[in-house]
Amino acid sequence: MTAATDPAPELLDHHNSTSLLARTNLLRLETAELLSESTLHVHPPALASTTSSSTSLAIGEERAHYEARWSPLVRKYLHQVNDILLSSLGQGTTRLSPDLCAVDGGYRIPLQSDKFQKHVRGDSHGDSQWEFPAPKHLTLHPVGSFAHLGNAGLTNRHANGNNVPVLDVAVLISEEGFVGGKDYLNGRYFDVSFDVGSVAYILFCGIGMDRDQCVAVKRNILAVHIAKQLSQKKHRSKVGAVHLTNLFGDSRKVALLLTPPADMEDTTKPPEKKRKKNNDDGPKNTSKVKFRIRLIFGMQQDISAKKHRGHEYINSDDDDDDDDEEESEWNCWIPRTRLFPDRSNNRSEKQHTDSLIADGSTPHYTNSIAEDLHFVSTSRLITTTLVSLTGGSASVASNMNPVSSSFHETLILLKVWALQRGLLRGHDSFTTTTLAVILVYLYRTKGIGKRMGSMQAFTAFMKFWSEVDWLGEDSLTSDTCVGTATVTRAEMVLQRKVLKKAAFVIPGEGRNESQTIDHCEQARLYLKDVRENNSGTGADRLTPRTLLDSYKLHYTSSSSAFTLCNSHHDSPILLDPTMTINYLARLSPSFVRESRAEAYAALKYIHGHEHEEVGGGAFRKLFLETNRFWTRYDAFIRVPMRCVPKLATLGVRKKKGDVSSSGCRVWGNDVDDLGHNESVCRGVVEVLSLALGDRVSAVRALTCGNGDIQNPSSVHSADDVATKCFADSDQCLAVPIRGNSSNRVHVAELSFRAPEPPVLLLSEQYPCLVIALRIDPNASRRVVDRGPPAEDVEGSTAFVTLWGEKFAQLRRFQDGAIVQAVVWTATSTDGTQPDNVRFSGDDKSMGGIVEKVAQHIVKLHFAERSSKLVAFELRNMVSFIDGVCTEKPSPLSDSLSLHKNVMLAFDALSDFLRRNTATIVDNSLGKGKKVSKLGLPLSIDDVEPLSPCLRYSSLFPPVPHPSLGGMELGDSRKVSGVIDGEPILIQIRFEGSSRWPTSLNAMGAAKCAMLIQLAEGIQKMKDERGTSGNDEVDAFDGPMDITPNHLTLGYRGYSWRIIVRADQELRMLKNLKNPTDDAKKLQLSLVNRHVRGSMHHSLIHAVHTRHPSASAVVRLASRWIASHMLSDILPHGAIELMVAKIYTESTDTTNAKLHAVSAPPSTVMSGFLRFLQLLSTHDWAREPLIVDPQSHISSYNRALIYSQFNAIRGPDRNKGPPMYIISPADYDGVDEMTGSKVVGMEESTSQTVALSNRMWAPTITAIHPERVVLSRASALAKRSHDHLISCAMRGGSSNNDWTAAFHESPASLTSYSALLRVDSSFITDEGCSSTCADCVIISSAKSSGHITQVQSPFERSIQKRFDGPKELRRKHYKNLVLKKDTLHEWNPVKSLVSTLRTKYHQYSVFFYNEYCPDVIAMLWRPASFVSQPFSAMISEFQHPVVINSWKEDTLVVTNTDDLMYEIGFSSRDIVTNMKVLDNRRSNNNSVKCNKQSHPQEEMDTEENCN
After folding, report:
1. Rounded distance, CA 478 to CA 497, Å?
2. Contact yes or no for 708/759 (Cβ under 8 A)
3. Considering only the top CATH level, what class is 1-27+1080-1150+1161-1230+1250-1293?
4. For range 442-451, the mean pLDDT
5. Which of 52, 864, 1113, 1399 has the most CB atoms around its CB within 10 Å?
6. DSSP state, 799?
């Protein structure tokens, strides 16, 4: 195609450099504005720990000018809480016991340590009870962003996921008398922490919890005791509401969430002005929550350097210097050696013995204990780094200037970036502290320089996170890891991963990373321990020689394709300078893979490697667009937790025939380390990843931090928060301590406890683990999984264990290989139930066989035999566009086959026309006279498709009609006398010739003559087929209708409409020197129909061929558009272009190591949701939508499109086409195409100036939709998108709640001005109605053979369309030909609507559903009822203004009565009655008219006509 020529190279280079500079400056300005709007400053108070602080309330009372207005309230509130805590300890005389948590015959929280179990058993035998003293001292210490210098990472509500700012304060427990001995073992310490999700579920559902959710008892009981003390009635006026919540989603740790009272006095608030008595606004709500305090429990332990000066540590180059930061004196209740990652600190009663690491280490459990020791030291680590960067001190900043640096700004940008992607504040995601310590490492290792700006530091962070091999699996290939006689395959995989895995240590102050490791006392102790344990016995080959290697080994598993691994404890490693805590231990492999891919995509956006190079696309994609869990993936499945094996049955559950005879498992051996919840979560994700292989690019479990960022909570004010549960946008539940238990208690018996998912929704009857899948459409249809060779015993055992003995079988392939393999056939899973049916095109529209594999793996390893199969959420939406695949499928059930049949018929027709119009010389007719079989003087060079059904886009593809040579379906005794729909549109192009006429009128006559001759030639061949023996014309049947513009005929059962494309006519119109307006309109019409129509078809067909699910999304979107009565006013071509944008807009954001996060959708569900999101969120007033699947539009032309768009829109952004969609065919020189050139390809650059003046303008959306229609469609898309997302979140793939997105509610119908009821005899398929559509998958059993017949709404609809209207059906006999022609096109309602729109478009907008036009809706235009000056030329449908306050030149107004009577008369043959809902006459007298007439007026059509 020909298009705009780019400028000369030197001008293009200048343009590119200028654009790059503009984008860089724009990005800098945008980020600066974001930072200024996001930063929050609240200085922490100086809290007293041993004396009452009531006398020191004035400390920090004054507010700095840059602080939040409510910052003095924070300091005052913390002083009050501190006083209450100090007074509640009772000087260490208070005794605590598990009975403190007892309620209603059970326990309010789950307690699971060994001492608690002995306490319960001892209670039944009258033995002594377990009691322990409360701690003597508690210290409140600000931590996190609240304690960082300059409040680094603290943001306001808008940059905090729309959450109220939460300030973290550590409750440091004195270890004296509270913990001691071996309380670090077997969950005793952690029984002070519990899963608030468990409590919420206990309170609302009454189901038991698992053993890890309180891996401990003392800390749990103390938390409940403090919560009860703070929530006492005498303290409520000072403390407010107290809630129990998890710490960053960790089920093993509790935190208390404090909400200040509503009536807390704000002394800094200026006095309010007196309100007027009659103020309609009412009193201002002063009880809005401004902040919350989160109390985090930890042990009071200072493991920093012995000597320091202020906040600057003393450093020495001497290796033996005792003043080193790492050489701190250890004085703690837990021995330092118990913090080694190879220690086993949590042992169940029934220890597993099949672990690869024989000692059964628990590094995650140990690290969770170490976290409680490092709250203060971590804050100090970040603060000292900030001090070195700012050149100041760690003291509170002055009231004049806030402390700020690129560190602060970068941390805020990282926080916003992670929040928008659901990568922050989950149980398995980043925290603000995690991001901060990674920045500390980069600053201390010179990965980020002090002089770098915030965006440079942000880029360095993304580069670091995306390029580091955190898991050691970037270069791992499992098939090359073959075991030997001395080393197993699993050990080989483990060694390779450990060797490649990265591990880092944050350098100490004044040292580099290697020096820090050399001077670390923990590393020395580990080396000493290794030497002592291995002396004289020989070191084990798996025993690491250094502490860092030990971390790498024990945070790595041997999980791979052909290795048997039942432990999935992989995590990245970033250690503090003391090497006692891993800051990244909570991050699972799935999170690391996803976050690395996101970081790589961010780098691409920053460096400008995206399509939208104009308009600030990088900033929008990085920080503004929300792409959380429910919009990131292609499919979602729910694993019911009540079906997962209980804690007591792990390791002993076996199914005959499901796993190998050895009874090995693929998960569960890491329960003691990770806990039951996390073990199940990681097990499901990793096992599904292994089974699905390259069929998916990502598997991710739903975690906290992925809620609706727009609707964060149902409780916003402090007045009603005290006794209610609420969930913020992170979906973190907070349960009030004062809430009613409703007799929902937790039993002490562990055997009844099932695991809990990371996110608990109160709307769920039973908790489920939600798993998301991003599917690779190219590999998802692979039906064979090949395993290892038969001689590989270890690999074969692992393969059979993964798939089960029933599925994994030894097979021989054509290449001679004999291997274990799994073959997925149509009968691999049950698909006869209505909620789990198999659709005919599921391999194209539902991600291949991914759902089958997931169903099998979950049922085999994570569910009971009798449990229900898991299924994709919203899967039954496919029933609108496809049929059900059964044992004996109907010919109408497969939409893809129906489309292919049409295309085969088109290929046959095209071949017939080209062959039989080939001219040969026949001298008998004259010398050199050329003729063809069809009698045409010119041969047909090409036959081009134009119809949507020839590019897989038709919702109901045509079915061969018996009267046109098609098949007989259903009741063969009757056939329809009409074709319900439009004929298939194609165009023919003749060979070039100089014999074409030179005038426009003669050209039209010549085209008509060609069509007449073509019809006569086909009829002549049919008449002569008996004598010549030619049977190829037998496929032509039915009448042939000829008009001046087209020929309609029947071929192979289909109705075809043929038009002629004459390129000579286009050249003639273009070469006119002074064309008239009619000539310009004719040229535009011909170019749009012949040239742009053909180019559009080729573009869309290429997209649908490359992305199989794209055509299904177009068809489902067409159904949605029609369901909301937007047919024809939102063009079908616009729908196709928007879907093409969705599937082709994603750039190459992947490399050899990372998957793509912006990959095109692979299922109908995800594609349709993205279509709704694009329609509802795209800024149509300020940005064009450029659709360029094959990158034909150059950067220069993109800039030209934007400049022309801005010029057309004008300063008010209300000019030009409302929906501004540009494709490569929308260039005004497209009629010059030669068939080989594309946009930007031009040999000469001398015409740059002339070509730069050419226009890019929409053609498909040039007229429709109007602004009011686009606004309505966007609002409907937003509501439908939110509703479908909520349906997916609620779960229940068999529920039909999603169908509401395809219905018009009765309330929405009343928003129209008038409704016209269509006669039911004109309705062929009432199942597609906008108000009462058929949305149910019906399953029925036939009596003969008990065959279950399952039928989808699509099948029933297409059968009704094939049968046609009842009144137009006629008898059909096989041996008797009735001379009754078939009508090629029957669309009476569409014709009526087109007529109404043509005649009355200036008064009203008409809406209807093209698939079930039972109602035609009208909406008055506001301008129609504005008073106008009188003119005899345009006095139709007007009457004089009847009010006294008329103005000059405003004498008449629209007469709605005459208009409605005229509309009723025009539609009298189709419309049965009309209901007027808005019977107004003008803006001035509408109230008067409404008083005189009923608001809903029904008029009979016949009476109106009379």
Report:
1. 11
2. no
3. mainly alpha
4. 93
5. 1113
6. H
